From TrEMBL:
<dbReference type="Pfam" id="PF12146">
    <property type="entry name" value="Hydrolase_4"/>
</dbReference>
<dbReference type="InterPro" id="IPR029058">
    <property type="entry name" value="AB_hydrolase_fold"/>
</dbReference>
<dbReference type="GO" id="GO:0016020">
    <property type="term" value="C:membrane"/>
</dbReference>
<feature type="domain" description="Serine aminopeptidase S33">
    <location>
        <begin position="22"/>
        <end position="128"/>
    </location>
</feature>
<dbReference type="InterPro" id="IPR022742">
    <property type="entry name" value="Hydrolase_4"/>
</dbReference>
<protein>
    <recommendedName>
        <fullName>Serine aminopeptidase S33 domain-containing protein</fullName>
    </recommendedName>
</protein>
<dbReference type="InterPro" id="IPR050266">
    <property type="entry name" value="AB_hydrolase_sf"/>
</dbReference>
């Protein structure tokens, strides 16, 4: 694994981990809300397994997260971050691309689809509008701060930073996702994995089911019984499912 840096269109430095393999096929992994390139260890484990199976892998911190440059986060900024990650991958000589996203990273993956994306693996993805209060607990103090200052601060348990600044726009971003318009722009098979446990994951699964007919042909929804939004007890199973899917949909080049 190699620590790498690259710039987004705003000139911010983004930090990632690149797992090199003897192919020109790469899986770009995008983390969820208030997370980082490790994704609580999920991506570290998945990336090593994929690398061992011949896939290059790039994990990265969106701007304002982890080791990347500071900025107040909102969705459109993170879209440009994933686009920058793909451009960086191209600069490394990669020619075939797959996206792997967790939670909000799943929505980012869908929003950033381009014709050269062969497939996606999404765990607990946000596939439609969801009330921001359902995503995380926002205290009244934070809401007031956000209304007055245009942003709020989250203090996080992160090896690289102590706080993440949330732009007020992010609250609207959760509430206003157009599921039909987003999924209409995706033209590759998608593996969607949801759990059955916990209010957040159950709501996200229901949102996905409401729009399941909008996903491209060949897409598949798998529900893991007893899994919550973190999937921390099912990582081995997700690793196996994801790798099997990639072997089917994303042959090495």
């Amino acid at each position: 694994m190699e620590r790498v840096t690259f710039k987004n269109e705003a000139g911010l430095s983004l930090v990632g981990h690149f797992y090199a393999a003897p192919s020109k096929s790469i899986v770009i992994m995008t983390h969820g809300f208030l997370s980082n390139k490790s994704s609580s260890g999920r991506f570290d484990s998945f990336a090593l397994k994929l690398q061992q199976n011949g896939y290059n892998v790039l994990t990265y911190d969106c701007g304002g997260y982890g080791e990347s440059d500071d900025t107040a986060i909102h969705f459109d900024k993170q879209v440009t971050d994933l686009q920058a990650a793909k451009q960086f991958s191209q600069s490394l000589g990669m020619e075939r691309f797959a996206y792997w996203g967790h939670s909000l990273g799943g929505r980012l993956s869908l929003a950033c689809y381009q014709d050269d994306i062969d497939t996606m693996v999404l765990t607990g993805p946000v596939t439609g509008a969801i009330f921001y209060q359902h995503v995380d607990y926002f205290s009244q103090e934070q809401i007031t701060q956000c209304e007055c200052n245009g942003s709020m601060i989250f203090y996080v348990d992160d090896p690289w930073r102590s706080e993440i600044v949330l732009d007020k726009q992010m609250l609207t971003d959760f509430d206003t996702m157009d599921q039909q318009a987003t999924l209409a722009g995706v033209h590759c098979p998608v593996l969607i994995i949801h759990g059955t446990k916990g209010a957040l994951e159950q709501e996200l699964a229901q949102i996905t089911k409401q729009g399941l007919n909008l996903f491209p042909e060949g897409s598949k929804l798998i529900e893991l019984d007893g899994a919550d939004h973190g999937f921390m007890e099912q990582l081995d199973e997700i690793e196996t499912l994801g790798l099997h899917w990639l072997h089917q949909q994303f042959a090495l080049q």
